[in-house]
Amino acid sequence: LHAQVTIQIARRVRTVVAALTKDPPPRPELLIVDFDAVSPGELFELHAIRHDGWLGRLIGLGNVPDELRASLGIDEVFGEPLVRDSLLDCVAGTRHAVVTVACPIIPPRR
Known about the structure:
By secondary structure, the protein is an alpha/beta fold. Helices cover 31% and strands 12% of the residues. It has 5 helices and 3 strands. The protein has helices at residues 13-21, 40-46, 48-51, 66-72, 86-92, and strands at 30-34, 57-61, 76-78. The protein has a 3-stranded parallel sheet, with helices on one face. α4 (66-72) links the parallel β2 (57-61) and β3. α1 (13-21) packs parallel to α2. The termini are far apart. Mean pLDDT is 81; it is low at 95-102.
């Protein structure tokens, strides 16, 4: 069973805030933000989503300090380098792309 996902891209934080808090329901339940591309003023503005009652999942990309993660209620952060399919798996609610640790190969006995 696959849920349908609609993607919306916003280039301004005020557009995101309006879509998540002011648009009529149903509202988006997931927000992915490239925090490396957001100015300090926009970060302040982004906090309105939580202040105005949006309770959806927030996923961050880039460098996200712990204080910001806590104040915005960010669920998951992906920094550089991204692991292939890790964001997709996070959105889908799976852990398919979790990094694995290589195990040494033990040579067969002769």
